[in-house]
Amino acid sequence: MSGRGVFALRFDVDSVTCLESGVPALLELGERRGVRFTFFVNMGRSFSWWHTVARTLRSRRRRVTREDASLSRAKKLSATAKLGRGGVLKTVLMNPRLGRRYRSTLDRLFDEGHELGLHGGSNHATWQYALDELGEEGLERHIRPSFAAFRDRYGQPIGFASPGFRYNEAVLDLMDSEGFEYASDMAGEGPFRPPRPGGRRHYTHFQVPVNVIGEDSVPVIEQGLALGRSSDRIVRDAVERIHERRFALMYGHPYVEGVQWGLLDAILAELSGDYDVVTVADYLNRWKESAGHG
């Protein structure tokens, strides 16, 4: 690979633990390393009793075997491992509107030059587990308050990320109608404009895929921790995957990668001689330049 590579880190912010523990640690890491990250922020609530109960009942009806459930759990950390017991209790019992409760933390991210994008609408769990049940009008009602709150405080968001990578045609239409430059929901190796139904035309926004990712869309670091791998191996595996690409985009959540900031620090140290660490918006702009897009 000739020349320096381009590496971006994307964090989905969707819990009290993210904002109370993970984000402050990532702010310090970014300052120490002289780099800026991208944070996709859920401005609403993290938890929905209704959709959590409905999801549990659906799982029981599918009669998931113990072996299947064990394999699924092995690929990612439990909610308690990620949020901590206190974080789980705050999420379930308090379930605050994150954009309002932690406004000062988000303000600090913005003021220190990190990229802020939008992550879903008024309830993270509703989007992740029941997006298709909302319909177009329901989606509009779901996202409108969060979009307005974000725009009024931080200006027009450039980027968007759907909770759980869950999107549909209505979401893609929304990206164009609301003027988002990019979303990061679809799988792939490099940025692209997604085709509209029928394939003759394309949406105006770009999709910027996460291409350094674990199985079942679990973040690389979280999966390594869930599998009980050593810190050295987690760092080595991530760096090897990044080095396979000139343009590499990795994602995670502040409640894991922020709390486990030492792993990210080691990865950034390994990449410092070969890669520029940029925001996702800068990553897209550099890719456009390299691909000849105006």
Q: What is this entry, summarized?
A:
With 294 residues, this protein is of the alpha/beta class. It is built from 13 helices and eight strands.
Number of helices: 13
Largest sheet: 5 strands, parallel
Q: What is the approximate shape?
A: globular
Integer-rounded radius of gyration: 19 Å
Mean of pLDDT: 92
From the helix content, strand content and strand pairing, which structural class follows? Answer: alpha/beta
The total of beta strands comes to: 8
Spatial separation of the terminal alpha carbons: 24 Å
**Regions with little confidence, pLDDT below 50 for 5+ residues:** none
In helices, the fraction of residues equals: 40-55%
Helix and strand sequence: EHEHHHHHEHEHEEHHEHHEH
Strand content: 5-15%
